[in-house]
Amino acid sequence: MYRILVIEDDEVMPKIIERILHKEAYHLDHVVNGKEALQKLEETNYGYDLIITDIMMPYANGFEVLSRVKNRKEGKPIAVIIVSNAGNEDMILEGFKLGADDFLKKPVIPGELLIRVKRLLMRYQ
């Protein structure tokens, strides 16, 4: 079973993501900011297969989490999808420079999210 960490400070978006992905029997954990995400990653020894993160969050933003995940020297690689309202070109390019595997603009299209998640999980197997 794949483990997915959802990092999102909006209360509605994680429910939408869970609703889209629940049929695939993924195990989803949700945290509300980057600080909690970094703690959760440490607690689980980075035991996730995929991270879906917002960019603009309190305490530590999505770029900080992305950078930490992608710059680890040990452990298995983790796919990262950025999902954000902030869709200006500079932010998208910054995400990809830091190692993001994909970027989706809110509101997400359910079928598109599901296909992108499946594709990344297969690539990182």
Summarize the structure.
InterPro entries: Bact_response_regulator, CheY-like_superfamily, Sig_transdc_resp-reg_receiver. The protein is α/β, with parallel strands linked by helices.
Could you explain how this protein is built, in words?
With 125 residues, the chain is an alpha/beta fold. The chain has a single domain, classed as 3-Layer(aba) Sandwich (Rossmann fold). It contains five helices and five strands. A five-stranded parallel sheet has the order 2-1-3-4-5, with helices on both faces. It starts with a strand and ends with a helix. The mean pLDDT is 93. This is Response regulator receiver domain-containing protein. Keywords: Phosphoprotein, Two-component regulatory system.
Strand and helix map with partners:
Elements: E1 3-7, H1 13-21, E2 27-31, H2 34-43, E3 50-53, H3 62-70, E4 79-84, H4 89-97, E5 102-105, H5 110-123
Parallel strand pairs: 1-2, 1-3, 3-4, 4-5
